[in-house]
Each structure stands twice: as C-alpha cells, then as structure tokens.
Hints:
- By secondary structure, the protein is α/β, with parallel strands linked by helices.
- Helices cover 44% and strands 14% of the residues.
- The chain has eleven helices and eight strands.
- Helix 10 packs across helix 11 (287-295).
Amino acid sequence: MVPPATRPVRPRLPDVFASGRRSFSFEFFPPRDDAGERRLWTTIRQLEPLRPTFVSVTYGAGGSTRDRTVRITGRIATDTTLRPVGHLTCVGHVVDELRRVVGQYADAGVRDLLALRGDPAGGPGTPWVSHPGGIDRAVHLVELVRSLGDFTVGVAAFPEKHPEAADLESDAAILVAKARAGADYAVTQLFFRPTDYLELVERVRALRCDIPIVPGIMPITNLAQVQRMVRLSGSAVPDAVVERLAPYADNPASVRAAGVELAIELCGRLLSEGAPGLHYYTLNTSTATREIHAALNVPV
C-alpha cells in the first residue's frame, strides 16, 4: 500500500483539461481469473512510471465482473500512485445497486467515474432490454452520479456513431446532452481514421458544447483480434488499414510492427490537430503502449 502522505496531489480532471495540459490514460479489461489478474498487475506496474493522467478498468460483457472490476480499481487507488477512474454501467443494475457501487468506489478513495450505458446484457448487437428498476440511458446515469457527491464524470463518445444512433448528428446531440447533465469529459470508442474523430469534434462544437473529447486508441498488434472487436462495436477496420497490413499477413511480428507504426501516425495527427490527449486501450499489455508513447516523445 502506498502511504497517503506519499501519494501525489493531483488536480481534478476538469482542471487538467481546462489547463490545456494533455491527458494520457490507459484502460484495462477485467481479468477472468487470478492468473490474469497477476498479469494485469505486472502491466500496471510497467505503465506506472509513465505517470498517466488516469487509468481505468472496464466491466466485463453485459456488466459481468463488476465485483472484480471494483476491487481492482480500489486497489489501484490504495496500492499505487495512479489515479483510477471507476467504470459504472447501467446493465443489469437497479438504481440502489448503482448507488452502492458508487459508494464502494468512494470508500476506496475513487472520486472519478466513467458513466456508461453499456452493451446489452445479451451482448453487442442484441436489443437493449430495460432492467426493472434500473436506468436506460447514460445521461440519466450521469445525473445519478452527480446527485451522489463530488465526483468527476466521464462518458463515452463514438466517432463513427453509436450502433443504435439514427445518424451522426443525433449521436452528437446525445453526447451534448450528457455534457449538459454534468459530464466533465468524454473518451471515444476506438477508431482508425483521424477524420472520424475530427468531424465528431466539429459536430459537437457546432452545438455550442466544449466538452473535452479524448480519442481512444488501440494499436493493431493482431489484425483478426481487432477486427472482431470493432465489429462488436458496430464499426470496421478501414480498407486502407487492412491494405497496409496485408503484406505481413503471414508474419505476426511484422503485423505488430506495422500496427504500432499506424498508431503512432494516428496519434501524432490527432495531437497536432488539438486533441486534448490520448486514451490507450491496452488489452492488458504494456509493450505496444509504451512504444507509442515513447515515439510521440511525451514528457513524463
């Protein structure tokens, strides 16, 4: 455990964004077993010296792994120098359960939350079914968290729009509604075309909303794996990216090297265009993330 007296004094996340200082953050998924949790802690310790603005641990599919996610997030708060952001989703929870989860985070010293509707309980692509006594929309989850205390609240954004959104404009309007309900910043779903992110920002700014929108980055170290993930999110890996990697199809090491190079190019473009930072989807490994971070020459 890191003694409280030696933990860094951090500005609130809204103050970080307001200062113009770029935010760099890492996201992990909840391990399925104790061996996976040990590997995750190795990754966390390897990334800790980079001094990210925050780190987060997701819920499993359909809101599963909640208890493990909350426990690991709390341990990050007490046993490391990192700032954890606690995930919170609407899936499968009545309002009283959501209040209890927020209380668990608060008891562990976690005052930063990411409020998400989450994927349907049946998995991505299945119909959303309202949970009796629960919450159906992320905007209402933001309102709930705001009513429970002095928390900072992040939300999701979708450069290629949410799969259930009617169009790009209505999807941007939903993000603006979350900002007006009290969200402090947004983190995007993974994407590979910088224009998708930049045009999302333009749509939101046209609605007179200045919420910081942090691009979510996943380096392609395994093309088939990433293609499966983006299909689940209702997106696709662009043809230009697939063509760039195709010559290395039979060489996993070369695919990984080319994927990291693509991520470096994407991140460089986003930062040059004014993105307020980067949020890395790490897949619970640190090597590719550290390579990208080093290539961008980000001060630590």
